[in-house]
Amino acid sequence: WWKSVQPAAKDPILGVTEAFLADHSPDKVNVGVGAYRDDNGKPVVLECVREAERRIAGNLNMEYLPMGGSMKMVEETLKLAYGENSEFIRDKKIAAVQALSGTGACRLFADFQKRFLPDSQIYIPIPTWSNHHNIWRDAHVAQKTYHYYKPESRGLDFAGLMDDIKNAPNGSFFLLHACAHNPTGVDPTEEQWKEISHQFKDKGHFAFFDMAYQGFASGDPERDAKSIRIFLEDGHQIGIAQSYAKNMGLYGQRVGCLSVVCEDEKQAIAVKSQLQQLARPMYSNPPVHGALIVSSILGDPDLKKLWLKEVKVMADRIIGMRTALRENLEKLGSPLSWKHVTDQIGMFCYSGMTPEQVDRLTNEYHIYMTRNGRISMAGVTTGNVGYLARAIHEVTK
Ligand code: LMR
C-alpha cells in the first residue's frame, strides 16, 4: 500500500529537538525550540499552574467540552487580547472558540478562510515561524510574502513592509505577529503599528494576528497587546490566534483560542458555528484539562496576579541572558557587532549566523539551534552562556 511513501523532511524546529535528544555529549546545549527553561536548564511549571491544578483536582470530570471548547476559558482569553472593557466583547461581536494552541488556531482560521473565501491569499512575513507556511499550505490557501526584516540593520524593513502593504490587492489577508516576532525578535514601534494600521484601512486589508508570545516582549501581557488595540481603535475587523504554550508554560496542553471580530452579534454567532463545524470532523472538541487550568488562573484575581508576576520573571531572565551573551562575546574580543542580541526582544535572538556556522556549532560544539541562526534565548543559562559565546565566537571568526 505505501510503496510510494518517502520519509518526510525533518521539521526545521522540532527536528532540532530530536537531534538534541539523540546526542549524548555532556556539553550539549539546546537553544532550538522556543520553550522556557529556568537558570538550571530545567523545564518550568509555573506556581500558578500548580495551584490551579491543586484546586481543580477532584472537581474534574472527564466529560466532553462543547465543539467550541470551554467558553469560560475563551471569555478570559478574549479579555487578555481585546482588553478587560472591550466594546467588542460587550457587544458580542467576537466569534471565538478554544483551539489546539496557536497552531490549531491558525489552522482553523486558514481552513475557515479557504472555505468561505476560496480564492483569497495570505501574505506572510519573511521570515516567519516555519510552521506558518505549512499551515496555510495544508489549508490550500495561496501564499504571498511581504518584507519584514532587514539583514543589514538586523531590524525592521519598515519601508519594504509598507510598500508591500500598499502594493497588495485591496482586501488582502495579512498574517502579523502581534508581538515578539518569531524568529527575528524585531517588532514595529507603536508609531509604526499606527502607520501600518492606517495603511491597512486605506487598502481594506484583513489583519490576522498570531499572538504566541503575549507577555514575552515586555514582561506585561497588557502592553504586549498594543498592536491589536491599535487596530481595534482604528475599527478593523481582525482575527487573533492566542496561545498559552509560552506565557503559561502549558506547551503540551495545547490550549489556545481563535477569535474573529464580526460586524454584529448575528454574524459572530454564524461565524462561531462554522468554526465549530470545521473543528468537529478534525478533532470533534478540544481537550479539557489545559482549558480548566487557564480559566482557574484567569478567573481568580490572586492567581492571575501570581501569573503576571511569573510571566515577568521569565521575560526578565531572558533579558538578563541577552546581556550576558552579548557581554561574553564582546569580552572574547569578537570584532562583530552583537548589539542586536540586546536590541531584539521576546524569546528569540536572530543572530545573523549562516546555516554553515550553525552546522559547525552543532557538529563541533553540540549546540543545537535552527539553521536560520535563531537562538532560543529561553534555553540560555548562566551555566552555558560562556560556552555558547565561545563557540559562537569561534565559528564567526
Ligand atoms: C518555536 O518556534 O520554537 C515554537 O513555536 C515551537 C514550535 O512549535 O515550533
TrEMBL record:
BP GO annotations: amino acid metabolic process
The keyword Transferase belongs to this UniProt entry's keyword annotation: yes
Coiled coil stretches, renumbered: none
GO CC, alphabetical: mitochondrion
Top-level division of the source organism's lineage: Eukaryota
Molecular function terms, GO-annotated: L-aspartate:2-oxoglutarate aminotransferase activity; pyridoxal phosphate binding
Cofactors required: pyridoxal 5'-phosphate
InterPro entries: Aminotransferase_I/II_large, Asp_trans, NHTrfase_class1_PyrdxlP-BS, PyrdxlP-dep_Trfase, PyrdxlP-dep_Trfase_major, PyrdxlP-dep_Trfase_small
Key words, A-Z: Aminotransferase, Pyridoxal phosphate, Transferase
Record Pfam families: Aminotran_1_2 (PF00155)
Catalytic activity: L-aspartate + 2-oxoglutarate = oxaloacetate + L-glutamate
All copies of domain Aminotransferase class I/classII large, residue ranges: 27-392
EC assignment: 2.6.1.1
Subunit (UniProt): Homodimer.
NCBIfam families: PRK09257.1
Function, in words: Important for the metabolism of amino acids and Krebs-cycle related organic acids. In plants, it is involved in nitrogen metabolism and in aspects of carbon and energy metabolism.
Family: Belongs to the class-I pyridoxal-phosphate-dependent aminotransferase family.
Note: In eukaryotes there are cytoplasmic, mitochondrial and chloroplastic isozymes.
Protein's name according to its UniProt entry: Aspartate aminotransferase
